[in-house]
Amino acid sequence: METKLEKRYGLVTAIAMVVGIVIGSGVFFKAEKILNATGGNLPLGILAWVIGGLIMVTCAYTFAVMATKYEKVNGVVDYAEAAAGKQYGYYVGWFLAILYYPNLTCVLAWVSARYTCVLLGWDITGGPCMVIAGLYLICSFGLNALSPVLSGKFQVSTTIIKLIPLLLMAVVGTIVGLRSGMTVRNFTNVVEETGDTATLLFTAVVASAFAYEGWIIATSINSELKDSKKNLPRALLLGTLIIMGVYILYYIGLAGAVSNEVMMAGGEEGAKLAFKTVFSEAAGTIIFVIVVISCLGTLNGLMLGCTRGMYALAARKEGPRPELFGSVDKATNMPSNSAIFGLLLCGFWLFYFYGSNLAGPWFGPFSFDTSELPIVTLYAFYIPVFILMMKKEKDLNVFKRFVMPSLAILGCIFMIVAACFAHRMAVVYYLIIFAAVMAIGIFIGKSRS
């Protein structure tokens, strides 16, 4: 067994990783939620997309600056270690491996399964949907664990494919809506006048966090990226700007296809109806197939990060059994043991998600939204990194050292406050579970020391 991964990905794959991991499910899955969160207030919903996008871009730019200086095993863990020390880097890596990666991955498997069931006309809440979600997890794991190169090609292909329906809806939907008057109607009419504007906006921005999240996972391949110190920063900045533009244009395009009331009531069916309204029954179905493929592309990218979670710790001789999780299979050049552990964690959190949000609440007050709260926690982890970056990186100019990190910190704080407004007491119960997971990680770390 080896202990080092070879460099096999180029700039195009890195950009496709950033764009492909983010775009593919959240924009479809959360468009309806954001509209509901704002009471059908379309301009407020667009503002939520803009704020969420700017937070993503400022954080990505700040990490891109660090990516030009540090290259080890797992980008965000590298940057946390460089800024705040080895122990803090270990805490970030532990959180990513145990909570962040598997939670997002299992939710994406479920979203992919839901859209598949909508396409087939099946029940989206029952057992068949969860079985399909499990199969998608296993297939994505197999693709990543057995053929990393094929996984990279699949990521590039699905990224190109998934942009088709979004750009078509953005352009054609807007033209159709302007001609029919639907766009103007949706922009000027609020469906429900409920709640104060600040609370509505906070809830909508937190919902957009899931749609925008995932770009940081692309940093997990920095040790496998050719000329990483140049290509990773380019991929982070270009990728996040592309994502933000596509999302806002798609959201406007939807407003030209169907009324806000239909989108708010329909969920996934609302998105399907929007495509059929603009592109006809047959064309709408074909494009919806592309939507399912795009979701699977996102799942593939998330699984890529999930399979490397424990390896990122083991490569630093940290975490449980580093000799086991740090080994790399010679045939596939993949950390196989780390990959299997990541799949098992996905299975566990998929069960937890099902019991918390679909069949339960089985876990009482601990039934929280695992698609949003772990993301906000990661933004909290960013803050010390950005603060210490401003203190330590004295060779950077004022813009890179102070301006962008400060904006990124403000964005992170905004996201944390917004999560507290949106989820209220659920945040407290989530933090209890988070504390338990981190306590296990601290215990393991001290035992190894």
Automatic annotation (TrEMBL):
The chain crosses the membrane at residues 9-29, 44-67, 88-112, 124-147, 159-178, 198-223, 235-254, 286-313, 334-353, 373-390, 402-421, 427-445. It is a multi-pass membrane protein. Keywords: Membrane, Transmembrane, Transmembrane helix. GO terms for molecular function: L-amino acid transmembrane transporter activity. One of its GO terms (cellular component) is membrane. It holds the Pfam family AA_permease_2. Gene3D superfamilies: Amino acid/polyamine transporter I (1.20.1740.10). Its main location: membrane. It is found in: Membrane. InterPro entries: AA/rel_permease1, AminoAcid_Transporter. PANTHER family: AMINO ACID TRANSPORTER, SOBREMESA, ISOFORM B. This is APC family permease. It comes from Hominibacterium faecale.
